[in-house]
Amino acid sequence: MNSYAPAAPDCIYTRKAGVVVDRIVIHTMEGTYKGTISWFQKPGRPVPTAAHYLFSIHGDVCQMVADEKKCLHANAYNSRSIGFEHEGQAADGVFPEDMLLASARCAAALCRKYRIPMDRQHIIGHNEVPGATHTDPGPHWPWDKYMDMVYKASALGA
After folding, report:
1. What global pTM score does this model have?
2. Is the separation of the CB atoms in 118 and 111 below 8 Å?
3. Which single residue of 17, 60, 73, 137 could bond 56 by disulfide (Cβ 3.0 to 4.6 Å)?
4. d(CA 17, CA 29)
């Protein structure tokens, strides 16, 4: 199921004119889908983080920030990226097929829309952002499988 549940207004910012979206940043929620939606909708947090898209272990997709808007999810890359949060914990390494496929389809569509190259220099982990202090999506994220799914979804026009 796809849905839209906007993040708290203080979590959503305007991208500066001329900024090109050229990255997708992969995160893990370190919690549940419903819990993360609720957290991102809570106003007044000390650090008003959010992400553009959230993916449940069952393949549900929730958009919380419009693509053309900015949110705090990736330090130096906030202005130039779209953030993807995936249900679960990086240390567990449990990334169900339905969740990966929903995420890959969304990534493929956004790569086409924004002309983001479908490669590991442009679809990156939160841990790969310059100045990163986070380790997600963790050492168990199935990069080869995921990128293959993105390529296949793109070829199918997903």
Report:
1. 0.96
2. yes
3. 60
4. 30
Q: Residue range 46-57: average pLDDT?
A: 97
- Region of 13 (left: φ > 0; alpha: ψ -120 to 50; beta: rest) is beta
E strand or H helix that includes residue 54:
strand 53-55
* The two three-digit tokens of residue 126, written as one number: 């939160």
Q: What is the 3-state secondary structure (H, E, C) of the chain?
A: CEEECCCCHHHCEECCCCCCCCEEEEEECCECHHHHHHHHCCCCCCCCECCCEEECCCCCEEECCCCCEECECCHHHCCCEEEEEECECCCCCCCCHHHHHHHHHHHHHHHHHHCCCCCCCCEEEHHHCCCCCCCCCCCCCCHHHHHHHHHHHHHCCC
**Count of CB atoms situated within 10 Å of the CB of 101:** 17
Alpha carbon distance 75, 90 (integer Å): 19
- Residue ranges of domains in the chain, CATH in brackets: 2-155 (3.40.80.10)
CA angle 125, 128, 131 (to 5 degrees): 135
Query: pLDDT, tens digit, for every residue of 89-131?
Result: 999 999 999 999 999 999 999 999 999 999 999 999 999 999 8
